Request: fold
Amino acid sequence: MKAHSGEVGVFVRIRPTANFAQDLIQCLPDGQTVNVHHRKNSRKPLDTKKSQLSSWSFQLEGVLRDVSQEEFYTRVCRWVVLGALDGYNGTVMCFGQTGAGKTYTMTGSTESYKQRGIIPRALQEVFQEVEIRTEHAFTVYLSYLEIYNETLVDLLSSLPGLPRPSPHAMLVMEEPGRGVFVRGLSLHPVHSEEEALNLLFEGEMNRIIGSHALNRNSSRSHCIFTLHIESRSRTLTDAKYVTSKLNLVDLAGSERLGKTGSEGQMFKEAVYINRSLSFLEQAILALGERRREHVPFRQSKLTHALKDSLGGNCNTVLVANICGEAAQIEETLSTLRFAGRMKCVRTDPVVNEHTDPAAQIKKLEKEVQKLKEELSISNTLANRPDSTSKPLSEAQQAEIQSQVQSYLEGNLEEINIISVRQIQAVFAQFKLALQEQEQRLKAELCQMYNLVEKDQHADTADVKECNTRDVSEDVEAGCFEVPQSTKNAHRPSSTKAKTKKCREKQNQNKRQGDGSPVSRKRLESASRSKLNCVQAPEKEPEADTESQDTQESQLPGNVPLHPDSPPPKEEAFEDFKLGQGSKLNSILKENKAVLLERRSLLRQLTEEVNTVKKDIDCTATSIQQHRELRGDQGQYLVLEGEPLLQEPDASLLMRLRELKALYRQRYEVLRDIKAEVNYCQHLVDQCRVRLLSEFEIWYKKSFMVPEEELDVTMKKSLRQEEGMEGRPFPDNPSSESFYNARYRMMKRRNSRALGFTPVQRNSPGQRRFPPIPLVS
Ligand code: ADP
Ligand code: MG
Reply:
């Protein structure tokens, strides 16, 4: 059954009576309109003329007069009941004065089957549907709540086996995911119509019946009979299920206090009833105002308990029960007004769908199993090894290893992907190859620079003996001992023989060096160092040191040359510029070329501007001299407002004007070129810092040199090369800290930098600055 989106379904049911006030109540043939005419008497009894006749017209979803219980159920309630079976919450409420037929409508006669009301019919419908809808498994629970004088009463707590709760233990509560519920209210599972009816009648018996002036058996309380329905699909292995609540509400009478003549206990009851109905009306009014955010549901137990069942996301029906007699015309009017307001409440029903976590897990497990099976079948069909469960065999591992090897050697263009397991094995092989390469490299470096692994004690002793230095430094987690720089070390004379031995060993190393480009290069620079090493030992220690110092001072990089040390930075830097740093170096060169070009242009322009300035000064002086010679004789003739000048005044002034214009124009160009020079200078600075920092990283990595300061002299040489003397660094000592800090920051940033965009040259005529290389 589809949910009715829109307004609350409001119906009027007129209790049959022999004294129907035909002149006051008019039911129009459309079956939806009822007109009420009411002559309101003046408060002054004698003033009969002043009594006014007023008319009201109410248009509702249905006005039902003299309809059977069956017809009424079918027309008004059936869709709400069926909706509940589909997962929509539903509420049917009977409202009206005492004796108007609310209980008759809701429960009906407990004696006559034909006159049974909405609740027994709904129960029958539900269990009939449960029988029909075999594809769903339904669970139905019942509860029967009474609200009497703002106290919650469980009408089914009298059943055997149930503890009798104290009324104060019951409380209307709200929980996320569960909605509104009454704590302490018993829920009874029912499996058949009969079981359900037994409970209904049990509850009916427990209802508090008070004597009343209008109807001695009228209920003085609000009663909420609720069916809690849960439905799960039997056919779909779905973790989703739906729940719903069907509230069938028999409200207490809405009559006025004065008219009922209630006293004592009855008066108290009437006060509570009227108050809760008034709160119900306020809640309805608030619900009717669409823009209103707050609805006062918590003002009474009734509105709080019905919070999720009035309008909102559930199917709602209000039955306005009225008496057709003239004596009750005011109550009838009041009931119809309430019905009219209820009609304004909007509803937008939604199915209460939930997901069962346990069922969801089961469902996913099944799905995983199915997918595994499918994958296995597909692997078999494609003649691929089943990678889903079994680990790779030794043969498969060996195959992958050889593939990776061929790939690394360049004999295989690509490795075909077969399975996730195979991809993992390929990665493992890459890792292994990398580790082996690293080991090989370490071994080579050890061999080349006499570095020794700590556990090779015999060799270590030998090398230590060979080296004149006595301090070693750990480079990589204490694995290697690296000879320290010997810049100022004195070599004892007694070590001459050992030095010779050392030389022999190094020569041997040289012979052993393999043909890899790195090691060859390293060997070359090592051999260059060795030449120096061979010449030095012939001298006395003091002289030796002195000679070394002299040698060092002659070198631009001020780096000591020693057979056991890494190659001098200058040489390495040259290598770096040709190899790994070639791109960066060419960008630097390019930037420098642009800078030089701009600078020479700047010089040219400066000369030009100065020349023009001199010309201006000369011309101005000549004019001045002419004027002085001429004296104040009034030679100027004015023709048509323009000064007419005599030669040579006119020509000189013209020349001055031209020169000034030229000066302005050249000056503007000069200013622009100056800005360009500054910008190019900035780019060159950036490139240089970047080149040096990359070289430092490369140098350390390649020669396993511990962290040390960049050789300042090298920076200096670079700057000299660029003709940057006079710049704050390094010539101005006070700026050194700043530049050092800046340099370190750049270094850190550069080590993380991703790439470098080459500079673009300015095309002639275009004053477009080259883009800044990506250094940050
Ligand atoms: P309420 O619950 O509104 O106080 P009841 O349902 O108790 O009123 O009705 C009062 C009396 O009127 C009852 O005896 C009931 O049988 C009778 N009655 C009410 N409506 C009808 C109806 N539509 N047809 C026949 N009898 C009715
Ligand atoms: Mg009643």
Observations:
- Residues 649-703 form the longest helix (55 residues).
